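Predict the assembly for these two chains.
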Amino acid sequence: MSNSIDINLGRENNSMNSLTFHWFAMFNDGTVINQFDQEGKEHRFQEVKDKFSDLIFFNLTNNKDKFFTVDLKQGVVGCNNHPQSLNTESKETKKNIRLIFFRRRRKEIGCQDLKIKSESIKYHLGFQYNYEDGKNRQTILKIDEEGNFTIE
Amino acid sequence: MAATHEWSESNGAGEVVTDAIANINFGSVDDNNINTITYPITIGQNSFSKYIRGKFTGVFTEISNMKFWKSAGAYIVGESLKAGANVAYATPSQVGTVDTDIPTTEGAALSVNSAEGNPTIEYGVSGVSGYTGYMRLQLRTTGSTPAGAVNQKTLTFQYDEV
């Protein structure tokens, strides 16, 4: 099964595209996968998962004013090139750094004469790693559709 | 493009599946998108049980962490809403279900599996229907429930997607 959608629809002309932010991933051999490539095809995140151990940067952008980056070599997540992190641990203390990315979606429906009411998306972006003591720690930005975020 | 989610309801003895339902109105008939004025629940009785599922289409990699709860809408006297997740389909009826009160917070939400009984729905895997398991719902009243419409309520389904 192909990982890309075999129709020529990109984020600009795809009426089914409901995402504000789109990702692109960079690997240690210099290759890049854009969620929407130059031909307008959409690629599934599965392609990133398939090369997870080679991933060095993962970016999320709305192509306007917000650009979020996870640097998986340094263990840093940033917004518009400004590192955003509550943890001040040095890179040397972070072992086995791994990407965290998913969209958390909420769909509401009414009962007793309400119709489908709303839906919302929050992008969860960050990384997890093993600290010196071996315990797992993580830093995540929770980003809303306007690009506002909180750090967890 | 994200995964497309729609609500689905099953009705009837032979299970007629209706996708893209507009609401989850409870009433005195086994049907979807019920007009509650036409099919009111008699005081002291239960609504017909409802079997609701989520249906995912489009292109995605994985759906996980699926939760379901009542996020808004106060009960009136004697009213309750019962819910169970990942139940087997049975012909809807007004007989009281075995379910407990629907959770009202995300922290206590019902965990929902795929129709195949897995905690995730993976895109394109053979045998994966794209449906969640059934969420069974029933609105109940007692003799003390006042006549007239109950309050509107909001049900929330949350999931993580990549």
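The CA atoms of residues 71 and 154 of chain B lie 6 Å apart. The two ends of chain B are 11 Å apart (CA to CA).
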